[in-house]
């Protein structure tokens, strides 16, 4: 990866562009890794850059295309007026037709490595900085948590990848071969064990920084993926006494007033305004329309930017009657007009919805819809881990160890909060299906569904069936290639970007 040769030396320069105070003291031309990583303030500034990389890697277009739209939860509104390469790449990610030249897939891959490079620089330079042990531990713990977070995405989406564990200082460091999946997971586990030992316990109100609880949750997620359920149980039970809880109302979890609440273990931080820290992922999920003000509350056109990550009616139909999460998560824009330019007339609830004759109906993701004053400039954070992850993770880990009765004690609070009756099901197979369903609706549109399908071995079966549904629902429309949704084992991983294959002489994933 050629760009890694420069990242460790230039990341600091990139970060300094927003720091007038720093520029008053040291010209940009003299900033180097040798004279920057010296004070606590400088390391804190570098840490801000490492957290910003989480936005780029896990809050980007690639994140929801590859994590949610790849799954059976959502589809897309075909835009026949814009056939640009970026649009086609998003469509092909949904259709399972992506290939080695996809810039969308490359974006995910490269942004994870940018975050890794920033974390590596912090980890490498801290020991010689002479900071107090307490400060060094706090910074090291956060950096190793972030590095593990990025590698966990890489190994799940791409398989074994090159392991860069030191700041790149020369060409000899920049071209590493692919490590095995097991080797990558070993690094992730080692990083997280160290992070857990060094990070502070959570304190409320939270700041958005990683805590011991976030590291334990990430490690438990790794163990669930590896099917090491006993170790997952241990880590998750270590979180339960730390002061987290479910908020009483599901919809309020995503409220702007509840950022970093007692239900949040880790979320991507955003702030609306003119500082380049705002979120905007609401808008791609809205209809292709000349005016979406009935949804957003402000005059705004979305004729080219919307139509993505559209909840399917099959997804809507999976919610149990009375499940409050349906109306909190999904809305329906009803109106008229041609595909690509909908005239929105009214907003409807998805509960019991039946489309009137002559109308168009567009389901949209509602949980990130909150008041804002500027188009494409919203204040919503994006959840990575919530306390319901702990509860449903425990339910899964216990059920897989034939502890069904105990599993219900963690599953049922999630169901009851949603307005559903507690389950009494203790059959392992039936409870496994119920937990999978709960995860689908509890974490809908949080970029977890595709990864859940892969790790539970359901992706091929579910997505081929979903392909049949999509093709039947859109019968008569010509935008779906006949080869779409032909999901095989090879499609459970994305391709290593072609540029990395060429410059790093890496072996490509099978089938690409």
TrEMBL record:
<keyword id="KW-0998">Cell outer membrane</keyword>
<feature type="domain" description="RagB/SusD">
    <location>
        <begin position="311"/>
        <end position="512"/>
    </location>
</feature>
<feature type="domain" description="SusD-like N-terminal">
    <location>
        <begin position="21"/>
        <end position="224"/>
    </location>
</feature>
<dbReference type="Pfam" id="PF14322">
    <property type="entry name" value="SusD-like_3"/>
</dbReference>
<dbReference type="InterPro" id="IPR033985">
    <property type="entry name" value="SusD-like_N"/>
</dbReference>
<comment type="similarity">
    <text>Belongs to the SusD family.</text>
</comment>
<protein>
    <submittedName>
        <fullName>RagB/SusD family nutrient uptake outer membrane protein</fullName>
    </submittedName>
</protein>
<dbReference type="InterPro" id="IPR011990">
    <property type="entry name" value="TPR-like_helical_dom_sf"/>
</dbReference>
<keyword id="KW-0472">Membrane</keyword>
<dbReference type="InterPro" id="IPR012944">
    <property type="entry name" value="SusD_RagB_dom"/>
</dbReference>
<dbReference type="Pfam" id="PF07980">
    <property type="entry name" value="SusD_RagB"/>
</dbReference>
<keyword id="KW-0732">Signal</keyword>
<dbReference type="GO" id="GO:0009279">
    <property type="term" value="C:cell outer membrane"/>
</dbReference>
């Amino acid at each position: 990866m050629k760009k890694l040769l420069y990242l460790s030396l230039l990341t600091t320069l990139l970060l300094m562009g927003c720091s007038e105070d720093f520029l008053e003291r040291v010209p940009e031309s003299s900033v180097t890794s040798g004279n920057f990583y010296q004070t606590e303030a400088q390391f804190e500034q570098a840490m801000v850059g490492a957290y910003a990389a989480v936005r780029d890697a896990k809050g980007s277009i690639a994140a929801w295309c590859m994590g949610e739209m790849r799954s059976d939860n959502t589809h897309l509104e075909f835009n026949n007026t814009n056939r640009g390469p970026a649009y086609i790449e998003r469509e092909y990610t949904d259709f399972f037709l992506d290939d080695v030249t996809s810039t969308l897939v490359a974006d995910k891959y490269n942004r994870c490595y940018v975050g890794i490079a920033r974390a590596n620089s912090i980890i490498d330079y801290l020991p010689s900085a002479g900071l107090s042990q307490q400060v060094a531990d706090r910074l090291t713990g956060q950096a190793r948590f972030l590095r593990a977070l990025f590698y966990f995405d890489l190994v799940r989406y791409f398989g074994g990848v090159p392991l860069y564990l030191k700041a790149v200082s020369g060409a000899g460091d920049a071209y590493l071969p692919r490590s095995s999946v097991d080797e990558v997971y070993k690094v992730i586990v080692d990083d997280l064990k160290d992070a857990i030992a060094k990070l502070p316990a959570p304190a409320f109100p939270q700041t958005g920084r990683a805590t011991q609880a976030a590291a334990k949750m990430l490690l438990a997620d790794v163990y669930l993926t590896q099917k090491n359920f006993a170790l997952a149980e241990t880590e998750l039970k270590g979180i339960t006494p730390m002061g987290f809880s479910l908020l009483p109302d599901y919809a309020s979890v995503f409220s702007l007033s509840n950022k970093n609440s007692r239900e949040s273990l880790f979320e991507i931080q955003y702030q609306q305004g003119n500082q380049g820290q705002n979120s905007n992922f609401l808008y791609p999920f809205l209809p292709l329309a000349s005016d979406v003000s009935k949804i957003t509350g402000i005059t705004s056109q979305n004729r080219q930017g919307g139509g993505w990550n559209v909840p399917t009616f099959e997804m809507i139909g999976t919610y149990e009657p009375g499940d409050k999460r349906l109306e909190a998560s999904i809305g329906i824009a009803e109106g008229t007009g041609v595909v690509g330019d909908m005239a929105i007339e009214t907003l409807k609830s998805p509960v019991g919805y039946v489309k009137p004759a002559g109308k168009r109906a567009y389901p949209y993701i509602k949980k990130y819809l909150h008041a804002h004053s500027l188009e494409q400039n919203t204040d919503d954070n994006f959840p990575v881990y919530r306390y319901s992850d702990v509860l449903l993770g425990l339910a899964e880990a216990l059920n897989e160890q034939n502890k069904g009765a105990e599993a219900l004690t963690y599953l049922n609070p999630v169901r009851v909060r949603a307005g559903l009756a507690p389950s009494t099901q203790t059959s392992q197979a039936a409870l496994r299906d119920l937990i999978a369903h709960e995860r689908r609706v509890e974490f809908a549109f949080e970029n977890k569904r595709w990864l859940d399908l892969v790790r539970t071995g359901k992706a091929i079966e579910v997505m081929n069936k979903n392909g049949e549904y999509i093709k039947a629902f859109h019968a008569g429309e010509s935008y779906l290639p006949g080869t779409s949704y032909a999901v095989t084992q090879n499609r459970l991983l994305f391709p290593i970007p072609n540029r990395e294959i060429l410059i790093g002489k890496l072996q490509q994933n099978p089938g690409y």
